[in-house]
Amino acid sequence: MRTKTLALTAVLGMIGAASAMAQTPVYSLNAVGYINATIFPGFQIMSCPLIAPNGNSIGALFPNGGGGTPTSNQWNNLSIYNWDTAITNYDPSDTANAKQANKSGYTNGWTQGGTNTMWPGQGVWVFWSGGSPTNVTFVGTVPQNGSPYLTNTMVPGFNMVASAIPMDGDLYTNTNTLMTGFENGGDAVYTFDPAIANYDSSDGYTTKHHWDSGLQDPTTTNLTEGFWYFNNGSGNEVWVENFSVNP
After folding, report:
1. pLDDT tens digit string along 72-86?
2. Dihedral in degrees, nearest 10, Cα atoms 109, 114, 117, 123
3. Among 108, 146, 138, which Cα is nearest to 240's?
């Protein structure tokens, strides 16, 4: 269904110790790269599993202001909808179109100034009203162990989340994206399939620490794909992912 490309480059930063007694280098290893993701006509739940150099605001990830090609009005058919768990409703949508992009007060050609976000681990609704698929390229740093983006807190009720790791993930068996320790019977995952413009079947916990083994399909999420997580309990649940490029 989705055409995506992931390219990661391990970048070594070396600082030599300025000492006549010892010349021990100190290494800092970061993984940086890019992801090409396809946006299909209609709705889909997306995420950006990279920390972009200019921040993960909608205006930075989907620049739509002046300056000529390719940043001028190229996202006029795109709408973004962020779910706010505090109000259990959507924030005002960021919507770009030709009139707004040419109008003063619309930073980067977006309503709301393009300030809505798409951080690693955060899912958002994306609506593309163009007649054919289009592509977006995300560039940035990969979250690693110790990054706050690898810890996702799910409050009671519905949460729109995603894996913060730039890879396909099986929520049932993958050691990086594995969801463990959740004890609420009735918790559920809902993934949306843009090919059928509808939800896949839900997957839920039937006993402590276990998925319902009869409902495996929605436990697999794709690169840049977000999903709904329903926390059926009265307290927060925490999803911690593990990823490191360090040897």
Report:
1. 678 988 999 999 999
2. -50
3. 146
The pTM (predicted TM-score) of the whole model is 0.82
pLDDT in tens, 54-66: 999 998 999 887 6
- Does the pLDDT at position 4 exceed 80? no
Contact in structure between 212 and 204 (CB atoms under 8 Å): yes
Over 155-196, what HEC string results? Answer: CCEEEEEECCCCCCEECCCCCCCCCCCCCCCCCEEECEECCC
pLDDT band at 110 (very low <50, low <70, confident <90, very high): confident
